[in-house]
Backbone:
């Protein structure tokens, strides 16, 4: 048995202690006082303060914690630790259970123990049956099953493979958005997901979805498909309205599609159902479909795939 608490003691706790120690030192606390506040030794505090804090940020990134998020956690914990040991423990437990509820520790946990590839205990236990992230994970699982069982879907899978992203109702950052790690690939004549869905699995799909959602709040899910003349005809027949990303772009930027979409939506007026990326040097043409949920967007993709195959 390998509970996620191993990640707490080996990765999360030492990293946040180092960041909190730096904040307390900046406030003028001595190393011995910091050790008392953090529940550790003066020698450990000395190591924390003399070590490169980039390692702490790097370790926390394994848990899908961004630098900005890590700094917010450290600020909260520093304030709580000064108030009382009980407040420190309460805030620490709150932050850790929140990470587990979001599924942010899942990738690191499964990486340590591959036998846990289908584990969703934390999402159920910490997020609860009504957790927005647990619901998003369940939605994507159901959507993936629809795609895997479709005999038509492989016809519209691009070379870069497919992903389905679903934003919980309270999603604010890409780390909150649920998708499939490693994407959905083609295995013979069927689609096949590489791993179970989890939060923060695809920064690219999450950014595309969040940008579209900022304009169309009803959008909670998206999927990417191949785009060519046949797909354009199928989309037109289905009455889908698309935002088109053209221009000469290359794959040299961090995410040229996201950059182009942000710029295009800045001047876009009116409704849309999809985003068409016409591609460029090193960028395969794709269409991104949007819907109110993962099941809905998967159903739309399958209907287009059926029309594409028949055409």
Residues:
């Amino acid at each position: 048995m390998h509970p996620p608490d191993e990640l707490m003691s080996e990765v999360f706790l030492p990293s946040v202690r180092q960041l909190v120690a730096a904040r307390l030192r900046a406030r003028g606390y001595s190393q011995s006082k910091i050790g008392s506040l953090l529940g550790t030794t003066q020698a450990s505090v000395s190591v924390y303060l003399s070590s490169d804090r980039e390692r702490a940020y790097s370790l926390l990134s394994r848990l899908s914690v961004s630098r900005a998020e890590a700094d917010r956690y450290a600020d909260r914990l520093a304030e709580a630790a000064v108030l009382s040991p009980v407040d420190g423990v309460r805030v620490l437990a709150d932050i850790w259970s929140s990470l587990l509820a979001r599924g942010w520790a899942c990738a690191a946990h499964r990486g340590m123990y591959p036998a846990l590839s289908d584990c969703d205990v934390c999402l159920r236990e910490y997020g609860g049956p009504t957790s927005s992230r647990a619901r998003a994970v369940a939605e994507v699982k159901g959507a993936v099953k629809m795609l895997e069982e479709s005999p038509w879907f492989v016809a519209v899978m691009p070379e870069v493979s497919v992903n389905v992203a679903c934003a919980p109702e309270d999603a604010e950052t890409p780390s909150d958005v649920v998708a499939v790690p490693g994407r959905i690939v083609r295995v013979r004549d069927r689609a096949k997901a590489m791993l179970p869905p989890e939060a923060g699995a695809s920064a690219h799909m999450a950014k595309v979805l969040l940008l579209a959602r900022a304009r169309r709040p009803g959008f909670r899910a998206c999927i990417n498909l191949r785009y060519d003349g046949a797909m354009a005809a199928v989309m037109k027949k289905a009455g889908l309205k698309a935002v088109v990303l053209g221009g000469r772009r290359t794959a040299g930027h961090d995410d040229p599609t996201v950059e182009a979409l942000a710029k295009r939506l800045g001047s876009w007026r009116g409704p849309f159902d999809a985003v068409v990326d016409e591609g460029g040097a090193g960028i395969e043409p794709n269409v991104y479909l949007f819907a109110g949920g993962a099941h809905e967007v998967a159903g739309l993709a399958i209907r287009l795939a059926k029309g594409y195959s028949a055409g």
